[in-house]
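Reagents: none. Just compute today. Haloacid dehalogenase.
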Amino acid sequence: MTSTQQAVPRERSVRRVADGGGSAVAVDTIVVDYGGVLTNPLVETFVAFAELAGIDAGDLAQAFMAATERHGETPMAALETGAITERQMVDRILAELPEGAGRILADGRGFGELWFQGRTPNEQFVSFLRALRRDGYRIALLTNNVREWEPLWRAQLPVDELFDVVVDSHKEGVRKPDPAIYRILLDRLGTTPQRCLFVDDTEENCLAAAEFGIGTVRFADTGSAVSEISALLHRPVAVTVGAVGGAL
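Predicted 3D structure written out:
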């Protein structure tokens, strides 16, 4: 948060959203995921990365699965908790690829550099979050992310302007859907689960949040997410969203 944000208090909006038991609770904080919500879908980034790296997308997917079996967790999971470096993650993937594949990565081209060439910000959803913030809602980011990629993803988003709190897995040493990261989020916000609404494109992450009593919206595309959030908050849709939704 910038010093300007700290110096200018905002009136906090409160909307009442029915929980699973039908009772009304005050929601004043919207928590969002990064990849696939504030960006284009993961599958688009993955396919673009494979093409840029000169790797067959099917071979790359198989390499990730083989590395997961060999090491007991997905390479991305280990990277996102800071357990391994980007270089170590790349080496795990290269070891499972057909001979000669991934030469660009083997020659030292950064995984993140190529990954972010296929990753674009979801400007429409960012605009919607800005409108919520102007209405007085707190906005928080809960992301599984990578130490080496922090300058890259922060360069794509107005992080200091938009978010009151950022909880990043690599800094916490734990990632979604581990319950510990949701506890960290709530502690950092200084709030209760019932006052939060969580938006994520992954079902297991939404289910984990729901276990805490946090209301959830499963993100499929921008248009439907904006409509669902607005309905839950009893708020008119304030931005125009196109049919392509999250695939921006």
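The domain at 3-40+120-232 is CATH 3.40.50.1000 (Rossmann fold).
Action item: order primers for follow-up constructs.
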